[in-house]
Design brief:
146 residues; four-stranded parallel sheet; 4 helices
């Protein structure tokens, strides 16, 4: 008798330039189960080499532990069979015009919270704003592209 298999999870890759903020937020939100039956990865066209501490902080505020995540180059995922590739910044959309791993590609723009200026509360607000927009946008985006 064979064991019953669980539901097939669709694979999504989020791309941005540095893979330190936006794509990391998207990956964590999807993998937390807030976007349906998808599994996410993220990468950058020019990875920063770290995940921004405020990205980790705003995820923790909503109960998502993303500590231990790392900034990854897009080359790490070449040839992977993603069902969907989502660019979350214009620069990544321009630098990654063709994804060689197959699957559909869409663009969903978010402002870069790492470029926010001002007091800590203002910068933190920029990170929260992107996180909150993703909490609304990503489930709908993934449902449309399932």
């Amino acid at each position: 008798m064979s064991a019953a298999k669980g539901p097939v999870r669709r694979q999504v890759l989020f791309l941005c330039t540095g893979n330190s903020c936006r794509s990391q937020l998207a990956e964590a939100i999807v993998n937390s189960g807030r976007a349906g039956e998808w599994t996410a990865s993220s990468a950058g066209s020019r990875p920063a080499g770290y995940v921004h501490p405020l990205a980790i902080r705003v995820l923790e505020e909503i109960g998502i532990d993303h500590r231990g995540a790392r900034s990854k180059p897009v080359s790490e995922f070449r040839g992977e069979p993603f069902d969907l590739v989502v660019t979350v910044c214009s620069q990544a959309a321009e630098e990654c015009p063709v994804w060689l791993g197959g699957g559909k590609r869409v663009h969903q723009e978010y402002p870069d919270p790492a470029k926010a200026e001002g007091e800590e509360a203002q910068v933190l607000g920029a990170f929260r704003s992107v996180r909150d927009a993703m909490l609304v946008d990503l489930p709908a985006l993934l449902a449309r592209n399932a």
